[in-house]
Amino acid sequence: xxxxxxxxxxxxxxxxxxxxxxxxxxxxxxxxxxxxxxxxxxxxxxxxxxxxxxxxxxxxxxxxxxxxxxxxxxxxxxxxxxxxxxxxxxxxxxxxxxxxxxxxxxxxxxxxxxxxxxxxxxxxxxxxxxxxxxxxxxxxxxxxxxxxxxxxxxxxxxxxxxxxxxxxxx
Length: 170
What we know:
L,D-transpeptidase catalytic domain-like, eight-stranded mixed β-sheet, 8 strands, alpha+beta
């Protein structure tokens, strides 16, 4: 009997997703034209022609109500951004960077004399979890990011091109 460590399986699945995304098989996945996040409903939608074709359950920052305005407030930002970078080697299962803070966020933070923060991502589960799987499934647990299950993260990774718009609404 071979026992495989869970983080090793996660790395294998992540690498497989990256390989598939870069192969001709990736063309078989529908590509979103926009991502819409509804914080109150805890849903992320992939849109084509302004209509959702896939919807995913999400977790948010531990203080989910309201817009992010400074580093450390544990809030998920609201507004219009771009998914501008991908990290297959994240400390979470895959991650896609959201272009927060935008110029409006920066101006608001400067007006308030605070740092707006950054490093907001859509990502999967932690590679080295500190809580039970049930906790991650039922709680808002991020520092302001948008978290999904690892299998959902693979789908999002494959169905969102780089530089796609994302709108995050209350």
